[in-house]
Write a structure and sequence with these properties.
Elements (H helix, E strand, L loop, with lengths): L1 E6 L15 H4 L7 E6 L5 E5 L12 H14 L7 E3 L2 H7 L15 E3 H9 L4 H12 L2 H14 L22 H14 L11 E4 L2 E4 L4 H4 L3 E9 L3 E10 L2 E10 L2 H18 L1 E6 L4 E8 L5 E5 L4 E5 L1 H5 L2 E7 L2 E2 L7 E8 L6 E7 L8 H14 L2
Parallel strand pairs: 12-16
Antiparallel strand pairs: 1-15, 2-3, 2-10, 4-5, 6-7, 8-9, 9-10, 11-14, 12-13, 13-18, 15-17, 17-18
């Protein structure tokens, strides 16, 4: 039979990615048309507004261009000292002649990769992006196809790229969830390059430009990532901040002004850090419950989780949480260490039920014939 064991616990559990919708979050709103607030450690979307609806990402999609360049640096196909040429297409479409955001690279000049990175991250240079695409894939069109393919590998299921810059195109689309997922990947997988996102200015060709991310100047805990703006997208931002060991990722898009973008980014990050906390339930390998064993050399076997069970949630959810252990009882010997035995279920208000596998924390051998006979007799007499 299934055996439920209910725990009166004061901690909360989670592992993996989910969307949390606490009652206080339901009442919260933003001027942004699209928004996602994500916990970096778990990938939990804590709050969202149309998180899976496609939108025009503008220059925020340059994070995908950076992913392609970071990957090339990691696999050794490009080095920081390599130079990318600024073609006529890159110069006319994304350079000084374009009237768009640019790092002001000269026509037919070459730029070392370490400067290209800052030209994209700090200056949001379209010329730097196009030069990157042409250097890595031969053409911007081929690069956009590679961006889309790589995006699918990273789990960006609702993103389609048509260029390297985020320049308006009816089919160049992302979701705020995909942008948050991409930002999380960049922070986690490329820590050696991430500090560049916090640099506040960069000078190229004698022209000094400041980082367009307003949150960098308004909140010292913010250390990235990218802004965006076109007529089609409105004002947007992907930001990340860390306070007291907790990191959040924020995506906003469709805001009416630069001021609204700056104000909303700080306001939502403050709200997120106030409203959601991490709660640990069980450490990997720690006994969750002891399950009775039938015909074993030991009467019980500890049930453990192979990984830490940790959850980010609001205090209101924490108060209403309950944890249940479910398994078939009794467990029949022999039992191997690491054998899947049961499931830990975590329930809380306005949250999906979460389940985590529990395994045997040790081995239990089967009794000999005489021991099994005595055990069967005891069961017949005492029912246990």
């Amino acid at each position: 039979m299934k055996h439920p064991a209910l725990f009166a616990v004061f901690l909360v559990a989670l592992c993996g990615v989910l969307t949390v919708a606490p009652r206080e979050a339901e009442a919260f709103d933003t001027q942004a048309e699209y928004a996602v607030l994500m916990d970096y450690e778990t990938g939990t979307v804590l709050w969202g507004k149309k998180p899976d609806e496609q939108m025009h990402p503008a220059s925020m999609s340059k994070l995908m261009t950076l992913e392609m360049l970071f990957q090339a640096l990691e696999n050794g196909s490009v080095t920081m000292d390599d130079e990318f040429k600024v073609s006529e297409h890159a110069w006319r479409t994304g350079g000084a002649a374009s009237g768009s955001s640019t790092m002001f690279a000269d026509l037919n000049s070459t730029i070392p990769v370490h400067a290209v990175l800052r030209g994209i991250i700090v200056q949001s240079g379209n010329d730097a992006c196009i030069a990157t695409g042409e250097a890595l894939s031969g053409s911007e069109a081929a690069f956009a196809e590679a961006m889309t393919e790589r995006g699918k590998e990273l789990g960006l299921q609702n993103s389609q790229f048509e260029n390297s810059t985020g320049w308006p195109h009816p089919d160049h689309l992302m979701t705020s969830r995909d942008l948050a997922t991409l930002a999380r990947h960049l922070i986690a997988d490329y820590p050696q390059y991430y500090p560049i996102f916090k640099e506040t200015d960069f000078t190229w060709n004698g022209i000094k430009q400041g980082n367009r991310n307003p949150a960098l100047y308004l909140d010292p805990s913010v250390d990235g990532l990218k802004t965006g703006h076109t007529e089609a997208s409105g004002y947007g931002l992907v930001a990340s901040a860390e306070r007291k060991g907790q990191r959040l990722i924020l995506v906003l898009n469709g805001l009416p002004s630069e001021k609204a973008r700056a104000d909303e980014s700080v306001r939502l990050l403050d709200w997120g850090f106030r409203s959601f906390k991490h709660y640990e339930l069980f450490v990997a390998g720690a006994p969750v419950e002891n399950a009775p064993v039938w015909q074993g050399t030991y009467d019980e076997v500890p049930l453990v989780s192979k990984s830490d069970i940790d959850l980010i949630m609001s205090p209101e959810q924490r108060k209403g949480m309950k944890v249940t252990v479910v398994y078939d009882t009794p467990v029949l010997a022999p039992v191997e260490a690491g054998q899947r035995i049961g499931t830990l279920r975590v329930e809380a208000p306005e949250m999906p039920v979460r389940e985590f596998p529990l395994v045997a924390g040790g081995a239990v051998e089967r009794q000999g014939i005489f021991g099994r006979a005595i055990g069967s007799l005891k069961h017949m007499i005492f029912g246990s």
